[in-house]
Amino acid sequence: MRARLNLVVGAVTAMVVVAFLFPLTLIVRDLAADRAVTTAQNQAEALAQSIALRAPGPGTDALIETVPTFDDDYPVSFIIDADGDQRVIGEPVPTNENIEAALGGATFRASVDGGQAIYAPVLLPASGETVVVRVFVSDDALTEGVTRSTLILVGLSAALIAIAILVADRLGRSMVQPVKELSATAAILGEGNLDARVAPAGPPEIQEVGIELNDLADRIVRLLRMEREAAADLSHRLRTPLTAVRLDAEALEPGPRTERLIDDLNELERTVDFVINEARRPIRSESDRSCDLGAVAAQRVEFWAALADEQNRELEYMADEQPAEVAIAEDDATAMVDALIGNVFAHTDEGVAITVAVATINDQNVMLIVDDDGPGFSAEMAERGLSAGGSTGLGLDIAARTAGSGGGALIIGTSGSGGGRVTVTMPLRD
Q1: Whole-number mean pLDDT of the chain?
Q2: Are 371 and 419 in contact (CB under 8 A)?
Q3: Do 125 and 11 reside in the same domain of the chain?
Q4: CATH of the domain at 137
Q5: What is the pLDDT of residue 71?
Q6: CA-based, 20 to 30 A from 195: which of 70, 129, 331, 409?
Q7: Which residues of 339-365 are buried (b: 16+ CB within 10 A; e: fewer)?
């Protein structure tokens, strides 16, 4: 915006300057020519009057020698005509010049080779001769000072354009700088720093935008505070009945139904905890969200290894040595891996082997694969796992949402042994 404003002001100023520069140049040239011609005319008339005042006197040639000249830059010629016999004293006169009008007594100016000539005749009654005073004005004299004046005008024009652009740049800066501050503050707010505020400045319209942006940030802070308070209230409201139901379930007679009920309560409690934690979690900047998925997977496999030993499961982890940096937070990656591994423990029999693998592909993507040797996913379970509405009971919605936040996707398939396979593909972080 600032550059465009400078360009527009510079172009408009240049057009105005050019519109005045050409006429001024022509005027300067005409003034220089008029000055030179006027000087020559004055000199010719003064010489003619001096000759007229000094006659009668000595011979014409001697009389002319007594007449002083005024400006050596304008060559003078005296043409003496005596009954058609002409002779010239002073500067030579080209033979092709027509001086008949001057010999007839007319004072005039005529264009000649190399400039202009001014003719002023004087009649000498005593000798019957006619003396024509000719003053020559060269082309150089007619344009004397024009080049210098033109250069001065061009310099002044360039200075005027530069000053106009400088003023426009300062004016544009006074408008653009507040807009940049607004943009920077909006970016900081978008990164999750809700304490950022802008100092309204610039034109009234931009100040109004700054005030509205600050009001919007205040409203967002109030809404988040209300949301977190509501989440805290939800936590207390849900945990109390869940605890009561768990106590009632544990008081039932041991058996498959009781165990299934307790497992369902555990899953419900994990889901409630996840919802509450998500609601309470502060907003984080996208640029700060990154972790090594391979390192997180290795840590979680080590965590689940103890339970795998108790259930006689073979828990294997495989990964290449390349870093697997992805654009998700470490907490989110941990929850995703736990959800995928926990699903196998929760929905397969004891002794079913589990394989977790992390591999990079073409230095562009990373794959997290969780295989098991169980019965695999039924069509209904796969459809529920990929459903976008509500909790699936499989935890795959957590993994799918986490993968999507990092620019990836989740795919449900079949492992090499015929069991279940969940593949998470995500792009590597630059």
Answers
A1: 82
A2: yes
A3: yes
A4: 3.30.450
A5: 67
A6: 331
A7: bbbbbbbebbeeebbbbbbbebeeeeb
